[in-house]
Structures are given as structure tokens and as C-alpha cells.
Amino acid sequence: xxxxxxxxxxxxxxxxxxxxxxxxxxxxxxxxxxxxxxxxxxxxxxxxxxxxxxxxxxxxxxxxxxxxxxxxxxxxxxxxxxxxxxxxxxxxxxxxxxxxxxxxxxxxxxxxxxxxxxxxxxxxxxxxxxxxxxxxxxxxxxxxxxxxxxxxxxxxxxxxxxxxxxxxxxxxxxxxxxxxxxxxxxxxxxxxxxxxxxxxxxxxxxxxxxxxxxxxxxxxxxxxxxxxxxxxxxxxxxxxxxxxxxxxxxxxxxxxxxxxxxxxxxxxxxxxxxxxxxxxxxxxxxxxxxxxxxxxxxxxxxxxxxxxxxxxxxxxxxxxxxxxxxxxxxxxxxxxxxxxxxxxxxxxxxxxxxxxxxxxxxxxxxxxxxxxxxxxxxxxxxxxxxxxxxxxxxxxxxx
Length: 399
Ligand code: COA
What we know:
Layout: E1 5-13, E2 17-20, H1 21-28, H2 32-39, E3 43-46, H3 53-62, H4 67-72, E4 73-79, H5 90-97, E5 105-109, H6 115-129, E6 134-143, E7 156-166, E8 171-173, E9 178-181, E10 187-188, E11 197-198, H7 200-221, H8 223-228, E12 229-234, H9 240-250, H10 259-281, H11 290-301, E13 310-317, E14 321-329, H12 333-337, H13 339-347, E15 350-351, H14 354-362, E16 371-373, E17 382-389, E18 392-398
Helix pairs in contact: 1-2, 3-5, 7-9, 9-10, 10-11
This protein binds coenzyme A (COA).
């Protein structure tokens, strides 16, 4: 029998501050229900200048790595669309901060919100050939659409870290998956622009269209596997997106299944959906980590999920690339996920006012070659950006 390979450890790390959606709605003259029901978000994570993608990613990884992991990791792959450097990979900083063994490779991957899935699949392929080695996958992003824009209520920030190994504790990933590429302009960010360009409603339509095309392909190639998927998780730029995807597939008439069988399958998936979106509702869009935040949410909160169950993960990156991967939940998933500490981290965050949010939002790092000490914005334990000197970023650990 082939060795199982997949997610051995998984963690999330969030900025310390968040903005309540009713605070944002008041300031923007919108009805709060548009954000909480229409878009499906309650809170939005707000990063400070000290909580950049390196600090978020390093803090996520430090929650899961032990000394043995650090000596067996061969690759550090960083998935992001919030990179601040066109050449140097974010994972080179993580490699040093986390004290990973020196003979590892570190690099960054990009394809909008799909990137972490590409990294995960690369990592699994590497470990399938070398089952005694491990790969660290980190996704960290800060989504910025601009103050007062339509995309603003779907902002967020955070990092996910995943340790990929043989005989994983959490999730064994199937080798077969369905991928698709369709060159489109639904969301993109030219190198000269601080903000992403987004065709919001087109993106929402394209996402649903691509989901349906992927599902049709799976119906054609492996209907048996499709019928075994107990819960389907989604990339959630905002939580309503998952509901839209589910109902678009539901209303797709052409199917290899009977109407009754498809209705039964979707009933199960719809039943799991709210639990799989619980954490995302409290954070907003963390771009490439959003799918894995939703997957974590499903595993932590769905009481009707257990080891041995097959779960689908639909990854979507604007531009557009998508992939549906599947896998099986492993026996020790709940112990490995440390539910209480995840909940504690969410509860320890602090709410801020709209003025504080706008102040954090507008604060940019100096772009000159001088030395700048970055003032403390939180007292939280963990890695933070402490200094920029001659265009170089430096980090410290606060106890
Ligand atoms: N109560 C309940 N629902 C309400 C409401 C109210 N008072 N007011 C509006 N709504 C609903 C609308 O009916 C709509 O629901 P629907 O989509 O099911 O029809 C929803 O709220 C959003 O309203 P809409 O007018 O479409 O919002 P918008 O033009 O401000 O844009 C997004 C919403 C999501 C398109 C926008 O925030 C966006 O572009 N976000 C970025 C998306 C993204 O990240 N895409 C790329 C990655 S996949």
C-alpha cells in the first residue's frame, strides 16, 4: 500500500486587532445586514505595520514546529499575493526565524488565492518520494482593497502554516485532483499599484462557473469519489461565496447523478457549510490561506465529521486557476489541531474603532535607505517587524 501523505500539523495566526462590521457599516453608510448577511462577514482582522506577512507567517509556523521537525524540513514554501519583494522570497526570513536546518530550500509561489494549494501539492509530491522528510508550507496575506471601496468589507489578514509529512496526523491527501486554468481579469494587481483591481461581481460569477466546470469534470472522471465526499470546503473571499458556489452546482441540471442522489449529497454539504465558515466570518479574507482556514473551521466545529471521512477542498485563485483536491481525515486530527488554543487566540483579539483602523491602514513603511525603528503597536508575544534599515527588514521575538 502507498504511504499516506498530507497535513501533519496545521495552525492559524491572526493580527491582534479586528474591526466589527457594524462599526464599518456605520462609517460607510451601509446597512449592517449587507455585510453580515449579504456578504456574510462579522469581523475583519486588521494588521498593524509590525504584523507584516513575515511576522504573521513566522508566528503561525512557531505554533506547530518542534525541534525534530526543524531538522527534517527540506523545503519552506511561502504562498502569498502580498509580497513586498520581487526577488527575495518571504520564506528566507522564515527559514532563519524558525531555525530550520541550513540545507533546506526556501521559495515563494504565486497565483492569487490558489497559491497555497499549489504549494501544498508540491510539498505532498516531494514527500511521496522522500517519506522520511517534511515540507513547511506557509500562506500569509493582508488583503487591501482601499478605504470606502466595495471590496473593503471583504478585507482581512492572517497566516496559515502546514507541516506536510508521511503518515500525517490530520489529513491524508489523494494524489488525483482536478485543476483548471482560465485566463481572465477578475482580480489582479499590477506591480505599480498598491491596491488590487477587482471586478467583484464578475469574479463571483467566474468562481461559480469554474466550480461547476470542475464538478462536471469530477462527475465524468470519478463519480464514485465525488459521491463519497462528506463535506465540501471552499476558498472564502467572503463567506457568502461558498453558499453561492453550492447553489450554483445544485442548480446545474446536467449531472451523472439522479436528482435524488444529488439532492442528498448537497444536503450534507449545505449542512456542514456554516461550521466550515465560522472562523472565516471572524477574520475576513486571508487570500491564499482562506481555504485552509475554512478547512480548519470544519474540522474544529462540525460535530458530524470524524476520522475516515472524505473532505473536498475547492481552491480558487483569481486570474484564474482552481483545483479540487480531496483527502481523508486521520485518526488524531483533533488532538493535533489544539482546538482550545485556536479559540483562545480568536478570543484574545481586541476590537478597534473605525479611526484606529483607518490610522493602521494608512501607515506605510518608509521607503528610504535610512534606519527606522518601528514603534510597538501591540504587546503580544511573538515575532514582529522591529526595524527597517537600508531597505532591509529585521524581526525580533517578544516574550
Ligand atoms: N440585507 C441583506 N443582504 C443585503 C442587504 C441587506 N440590507 N443589502 C445588500 N444585500 C446583499 C445583496 O443582495 C448581495 O447579495 P447577493 O450577492 O446574494 O445578491 C450582497 O448583499 C452584496 O451586495 P452587492 O450590492 O453585490 O455588494 P457590492 O457591490 O458592494 O459588492 C462584493 C460585494 C462581494 C462583490 C465586493 O465586496 C467585492 O468585490 N469583494 C471582493 C471580492 C473578491 O475578493 N473577489 C476575488 C477573490 S475570489
